[in-house]
Amino acid sequence: MRYIRVYRKRGMGIFMEQKSRTQYSAYNTTVGLVSRLMSIIMGYIVRIVFTRMLSENYVGVNGLFTDILNVLSLSEMGIETAISFALYKPIAENDIEKQKSIMNIYKWFYRFVAGFVLGAGLLVIPFMDVLIKNKPDIDNLTYIYILYLINSAASYLLIYKKTLLDAHQLKYIGVVAKTGSWIIQDIFQIAVLILTKNFVLYLYIYIAATVLSNIYISRKTDKLYPYVKEKDIKPLDRESRSSIIKNVKAMMMHQVGNVIVNNTDNLLISAFVGIVSVGKYSNYYLLIGSIRQVMSDAVDGITASVGNLGVTEDASRVRKIFNAAALFNHWAFGFAAVCLFELLNPFVELSFGEKYLFEMNVVFILCVNFYIYGITKTSKIFHNSLGLFWYDRYKAIIEAVINLVASLLLVRSLGVFGIFLGTFVSTVMTTLWVEPYVIYKYHFKEPVYPYYLNMFFYFVQTAAAWGAAHFLCVEAQHILGITGTISLMALRLVIVTVTVNLIYIIFNIRSENFAFLWGKFIRLLKDRKQSRNGEVK
To answer: Which residue, 102, 107, 111, 307, is most buried by CB atoms nearer than 10 A?
Structure first.
């Protein structure tokens, strides 16, 4: 197991602390999970108070304005991903001067992005009537949008330094800082909603939390890596600068596709169905998106370790970890998707009321898209961490076009279900197979068909587990005659947990990937035990 250097400040100097990639991945994953779970609980409480204190029009406007600004975030162009990749090698080689040069370029990139988001966001205002069907009667609607815009632009200031932490495999520091600010923000927002029902004051707190957390992360980075504050910065060499610009261009295309696929649903629902349906989807997205974010944070914890792995190990080692990670994501997201399908509607009804419910076909396609997202997450992490952006740069544009065309065609006959079905169609036709193909061809330099066979096998497993779990949930409810929402949810959770995981174990227990993951888990437990006993590795 390879060990990585991490630099800490001691007095005016820097010393090295040795930890393994597995340990860093474990830290990042554990902190990501715990932090995200805390933020989910607080966010859920805020949303309940939000829906009780304010009308459903405010819920819809919140979702719509968030998606508009997420679309504008494509101006970030994937700069963070390209810069992270550029940092992996100089960090592995302890090349501090090159790290300083790269971070200086990154700083100016993000200052430009903040200005662009602010300017482009202001240009959206004249078209607000087009984006909102049946415009709601909300006071100061334009001013509310401007507050969302200010928060979005402010999110780019100072936060660029967090990328240096992430590239050093210290992602958990930024996660803790963000989570702490979210919890404090949520407490104040709950108080404001209950005491005043003032949505504008609610947004002021939102902006303050964003700015203060960015300042904290910036200062924390300065403390851990004081060289990032130094003024004597050498110009980046021409080859490195060209490589960064090339990767930024490629990531810009990827970002366009990602934003259109993932952040235009509310815009389409608002324009073709109505703002009330946006409010419904916002509640579902709060739950589905929160679970997805928890799991993404857990998986993203390995990103910097994969980047280091790519510059220090041979392709066969990377492929072995890639295939094991694919099994982990299939298992985790498959189990979560079935849980969501069985529990979402009872939970939404209990939390927000029956008027916020979607039909089961809409819930089903949302959960399928959640699972597909999880399956593609592995290839996306390796694809980006290994710097393979350029080879499939047009894929994202094609995906975006397919998504928009399919959603626009299907929404007229299928409504909200058609919009989400369009997302499924575009992902299956592009990302699901293209990114693994690029990884195998350009990094592993091997045929990709064994991976495709594994994926097909995983889909069969999930279909079997999903069908069996749903059948047992329906039969158990009928036989036991349970009518209470909480009791029903508890019953379904137990059935899904046992059924899905048992089926996955039966299918995978003899596989090489399962053995690899189990071995890593046992090794990590031993390392933790040694650390507690004060043993030096």
So the answer is: 307
